[in-house]
Amino acid sequence: MALSSSAVASAIFEGSVASFLKALHAEFLPDRDGNVATYIPELSNADPDHFGIAIATADGRVHAVGDWDVPFTIQSASKAFMYGEALKRLGRDAVLAKVGVEPTGDAFNSIVLDEITNRPFNPMVNAGAIVVSSLVEGADRTAREKAMLAALGAFAGRDLAIDRAVFESESATGHRNRAIAYLMLNSGMIDASPDDALDIYFKQCSVLVTCRDLAVMGATLANDGVNPLSGERVLPTGCVQDVLSVMYGCGMYDYAGQWSFDVGLPAKSGVAGGLVAVVPGEFAIAFYSPPLDRFGNTVRGVKACKRISEMLSLHSFCSRTEVGSVIRRELCGLTVRSNRVRKREDRTLLDAAAAPVRIVELQGALHFATVERVGFHLGALAASTSRVILDLRHVTSCDMASAGFLVGLQRIWSDAGRMLVWSFVPPIGGLIDLSAALVAAKAHIFADIDHALEYFEDLALVEGPAQPEVSIDSMRRFDLCRGFDEQDWTNFVVCAAPKIVEFEAGATIVRAGDPADRFFIIIAGGVRVSSRGGQDARLFRLSSIGLGLTFGEMALFEDGRRSADVAAETRTACVVIAKDAFARLEAAHPAIVAKIYANIIREQAERLRRANVTINSLES
Asked: 250 and 380: one domain?
């Protein structure tokens, strides 16, 4: 059963990204390294086999695989978001007076302060996070809890709740954090009761999220502080920059330096197994897997994120084009035609297409975020057309992972009975991997948009009414003979003495410089009109002319020579009329010749009009 347009759109939207994430999930799921956290007793109940991955884009699309919907406590991943909330409410200077931004090589729960400023080194370690939690406003613990949940919920785009069992477990065993809190009181970094500060800190760490929630929270940072699902501005732009900066240098504890070197993304982890990494301006990716390494980071999450960064060239110091600019423009096959010249009936048939071909021009460097945008755009187009040309003339490069994604899109369209073809994908330079992948997938690749459009136009005509038998008499339905009555036709055949000549594919019919001593009417196949240019005098296609149309009309108007080469593109049959025979027809039946001239002029005017429409569309 054929898929509906909406189903195809959904498949294209989800298909290739889902395939990529499923492969990634399958690769790291068997990894049994690491251990579930036990220093908070309630966390020891986590299933070590749980593994989820979720990606949320800056424009609101979410892809997830595995155990993405299993709730877990956010733990230290909350620190980045609560730090942003404090910056928003109190301002940078007030928060910096309490918490620094310097990385530390110490463990996340070290009882160490900056000896010069007496502040915690940064808000990503427990000391700094407890100070930030003490800044949450509210008249009592209930009010502060409500404010904290509202802040984290705004990032997630939904209401969140506290796992009371984990909260009680943290409260009962958090003696080291109590020592840290009292040290902060002694240093003047906490103004309120240490117990109140710890209450809200333990509660924020015990908030339940899913892998999907964590990805959306990260995507809010990627989207300049605006939640991509709710549209709510959660943080001002300046605060987002500060949060991401601290995440980059401090978010992975005493593994932060190696993380920045290997992965190169702002990130934050939690001891329940959560991890979120942010690609500013593009998307966030979150992981959930309880087994931890010696630094307190999820083993599978770290390994999978490192692999993703390598495959998709996500490192912060890897140059990438702006995501929003990947689609240069979109054109419609009703306004842009190929250079093949077609008879009036064929033009009418093509104009009546209910779902015309669409041309999508891409540009810049293709990487994960940009090709994901392309996939979503194609999904939207699936509701209005089943035939698309992706033109890559303005694309500079495409990494191997993105090439795989695009081939996945090709496969999805093909499986749904739709056609996705490619224009200008040279097997050299930055597109060599994509070209090889498309060739291996047996995709249709054309030299340019013109040839791709012609391909789709030919398909549409083949699918239309059957063509009549090839004969001299078949000329009567062509525009050249419009207005002929039975006597006109008889006189034309007798005086003009038309003859059928057949040409094999590739055969040269006329050459530039040849005498213009006859003209041709195509009754089967088609021809290519070319001119030589450039230093190597290569042939360049000027146009293609199809069934029912004429070429070589110069022979009718002047004693000139051919201005271009004409060759058969396929096996072609033409009715040929010699110039001297046409002169006899004009002498004997001037009214017939007048009709022919009028028809030729009308056809040339229509060709010019359509050429202007195409030129205007391409230049817009």
From this structure: no
Is 423 assigned a catalytic role?
no
In this predicted structure, what is the pLDDT of residue 30? Answer: 95
**Are residues 422 and 486 part of one domain?**
no
Q: Would you state the pLDDT for residue 286? A: 97
Out of 5, 16, 76, 289, pick the active-site residue: 76
39 classed as catalytic: no
Percent of the chain surpassing pLDDT 90 = 44
Active site annotation includes 499? no
- Spell 436-455 as b/e; 16+ CB within 10 A means b: ebbeeeebebbeebbbbbbb
Q: What is the CATH number of the domain that holds 145?
A: 3.40.710.10
Structural contact between residues 435 and 427, judged by C-beta atoms closer than 8 angstroms:
yes
Residue range 86-95: average pLDDT? Answer: 95
Contact 522, 548 (CB under 8 A): yes
- The predicted model gives 534-544 an average pLDDT of 70
User: For residues 620 and 616, what is the distance between their CA atoms, to the nearest angstrom?
Assistant: 6
Q: How many domains does the chain fold into?
A: 3
Domain boundary, last residue among 285, 312, 339 = 312
Told to judge if 313 belongs to the known catalytic residues of this protein, a careful annotator would answer: no
201 is catalytic: yes
Residue 287 near residue 53 (C-beta atoms within 8 A): yes
Q: pTM score, two decimals?
A: 0.63
Q: Which of 95, 271, 529, 593 is catalytic?
A: 271
Give the least confident one: 416-430, 433-447, 503-517, 598-612.
598-612
Domain boundary among 462, 490, 524: 462
Q: Which of 201, 255, 288, 455 is catalytic?
A: 201
Average pLDDT over residues 146-164: 97
